[in-house]
Design brief:
Elements (H helix, E strand, L loop, with lengths): L7 E8 L4 E8 L11 E4 L4 E3 L8 E6 L6 H15 L8 E6 L7 H8 L6 E5 L2 H11 L3 E3 L7 E3 L2 E5 L5 E6 L4 H25 L3
Parallel strand pairs: 5-6, 6-7
Antiparallel strand pairs: 1-2, 3-4, 3-7, 5-10, 8-9, 10-11
Length: 203
């Protein structure tokens, strides 16, 4: 049987203590896998590029501030998962990238993000710059006809390694407990990789 060029594989793992199934959704990416590249503006009105994120894994979520349900629900779950990690939450970058740059100015995003975890960085910018990022992510973003603030868009949490390479996706509809466990797993993998590199390249 010939598989399509883009297909999905579910990889399951378990935390025996909490009896929580950890499911990471991994895509069959082309070789090399896409990397995170952008030049946008944060909700605090500071310019940001992917270079500022190197050294820590990154979660990226697409959405828009006028979204009635999916975006705020996902961000709320993600915020609670980050809160459960306490100080560990500082070891992961979390980006909320708008799909509605004409409405989502940095000022509007700053007001919107006050209700979520402080680790979440809002990003907006010129439509061309955002379209380039969507293309790199192979994201689906489409404005709904007949509406001024309606969009269909990919609702995954994109997962990037510490070097900015796209490694997979997490489901935005996962429970707080599952998201927390998945982020912990991501951070543990990062620490193991970092230690392995230090052992391979001793002083």
């Amino acid at each position: 049987m010939t598989l399509p060029s883009r297909f999905w594989i579910s990889i399951g793992g378990f935390l025996s203590a909490a009896a929580i199934a950890i499911v990471a959704i991994v895509q069959a990416f082309p070789d090399p896998a896409p990397t995170l590249q952008f030049n946008l503006t944060t909700h605090n009105q500071h310019p940001m590029t992917e270079r500022e994120l190197v050294g820590r894994p990154t979660l990226l979520f697409l959405g828009f501030t006028a979204c009635p349900h999916v975006c705020p629900t996902t961000l709320a779950r993600l915020s609670r998962a980050l809160e459960s990690l306490d100080a560990q939450s500082r070891n992961v970058n979390v980006l909320f990238v708008t799909v509605d740059p004409h409405t989502d100015t940095p000022e509007r995003m700053a007001r919107y993000l006050k209700q979520f975890h402080q680790q979440i960085i809002g990003l907006s910018g010129p439509d061309r710059s955002l379209q380039q990022l969507y293309s790199r992510l192979r994201a689906y973003v489409k404005k709904l006809p007949g509406t001024t603030q309606g969009f269909n868009h990919s609702a995954y949490l994109y997962v990037f390694d510490a070097d900015g390479t796209l490694s997979g996706h997490l489901s935005g509809s996962s429970s707080v407990e599952t998201l927390s466990a998945q982020i912990q797993q991501l951070l543990s993998h990062h620490e193991e990789t970092l230690h392995a590199r230090l052992e391979y390249y001793p002083d």
